[in-house]
Amino acid sequence: MSFQFDRSKPIAIGADHAGFEYKTAVVAHLNKSGFQVSDFGTYSADSVDYPDFAHPTATSVENDEAACGILICGSANGVAITANKHKGVRAGLCWQKDVAELTRKHNNANVLCLPARFISLQTAIDIVDTFLNTPFDGGRHQERINKILR
């Protein structure tokens, strides 16, 4: 498999306090794998509000400054809801590799949302790799995405 996004652009990432530890590990994994990363915080485990980090991450994807985005919070619901407010962002909540694969194949998601309180760190990293390396199937799925965009 190969990276399915524009490699010349960074991967945007953001997390709240519940996702801070996972974000730190995912950033290290991405850097080790040769990716550029735009880290929109948070930068500690101190309690914060997830929209403060989801909005800048999603804006980076919306403005085509980032190849794609990764958001991490406790359940991933809050960051997914926030990111999906942005034009052109298709954020998908993924808790296993199969879901990440279908989110890319069928929905052409460009922001991955991870629930840190419900998956292991290794599972999170495996999901990231699956998300980044799975191509969009197009075809009938593109027709469905067009209906979302109207």
TrEMBL record:
Residues annotated for D-ribulose 5-phosphate binding in this entry: D16, H17, G74, S75, A76, N77, G78, N107, R117, R140, R144
Single Gene Ontology BP annotation: pentose-phosphate shunt, non-oxidative branch
Gene name in the database record: rpiB_1
Protein's organism: Segetibacter aerophilus
One Gene Ontology molecular-function label: ribose-5-phosphate isomerase activity
Keywords recorded for this protein, A-Z: Isomerase
Family: Belongs to the LacAB/RpiB family.
Keyword Chloroplast listed: no
Name listed for the protein in its UniProt record: Ribose 5-phosphate isomerase B
Catalytic site positions: C73 (proton acceptor), H106 (proton donor)
Highest taxon listed in the record's lineage: Bacteria
Pfam families named among the record's database cross-references: LacAB_rpiB
InterPro entries per UniProt: RpiB, RpiB_LacA_LacB, RpiB_LacA_LacB_sf
